[in-house]
Amino acid sequence: MAAPQHPDAAQNSSFGKFVCWGCMIKKKKNNTSWVKKVQETSNAMDLPEGIFTWSAKDIAQGLMEAVLESDRTKGTKFQSAMSMLNLYINRAGKKLPDKDKARLEKAKNELRILFGKPTQ
């Protein structure tokens, strides 16, 4: 038996399924709560409070210490540290002031230096 369809549903030819675009938009608006839930329940490495407001060298040092102390990282320790930094930059998006973006980009190079990787 076919699932009941919403009156506004239209067939999405890419997937061969019926989709109600209005419901998808509403659903997307409600997805903001998953971020908070993940932050509260995540099994990722623990970062010091306010680490991304520190100086570039201190951010790199703090990330390095956090990944070296954690046994919950995936990939290499360098990849995990860089991923956390990139996640913060990407989540901030266009709201991140240029001054902060420059400081965080500098922190990437500091992190590469600490892990003995080539800098950019």
Shape: globular
- Alpha-carbon distance between the termini? 58 Å
Instruction: List the total number of helices.
Output: 5
Strand order of the largest sheet: 1-2
Instruction: Please mark out the parts with pLDDT under 50 across 5 or more consecutive residues, or reply none.
Output: none
User: Biggest β-sheet, characterized?
Assistant: 2 strands, antiparallel
Order of helices and strands: EEHHHHH
Number of strand segments = 2
- How much β-strand is present in the residues? 5-15%
Category from helices, strands and their pairing: mainly alpha
Computed CA radius of gyration, to the nearest angstrom: 20 Å
Portion of residues in helices? 55-70%
The chain-level mean pLDDT equals: 79
Compose a concise summary of this entry:
With 120 residues, the protein is mainly alpha-helical. It is 56% helix and 5% strand.
Please tell me about this protein's structure:
This protein is mostly helical and about 120 residues long. The protein has a domain at about 45-115. The chain has five helices and two strands. The protein has helices at about 20-30, 30-40, 55-70, 75-90, 100-115, and strands spanning about 10, 15-20. Strands 1-2 form a two-stranded antiparallel ribbon. Strand 1 and strand 2 form a beta hairpin. Helix 3 (about 55-70) packs across helix 4 (about 75-90), helix 3 packs across helix 5 and helix 4 (about 75-90) runs antiparallel to helix 5 (about 100-115). The longest helix has 17 residues, at about 100-115. It is globular, with a radius of gyration of 20 Å. The mean pLDDT is about 80.
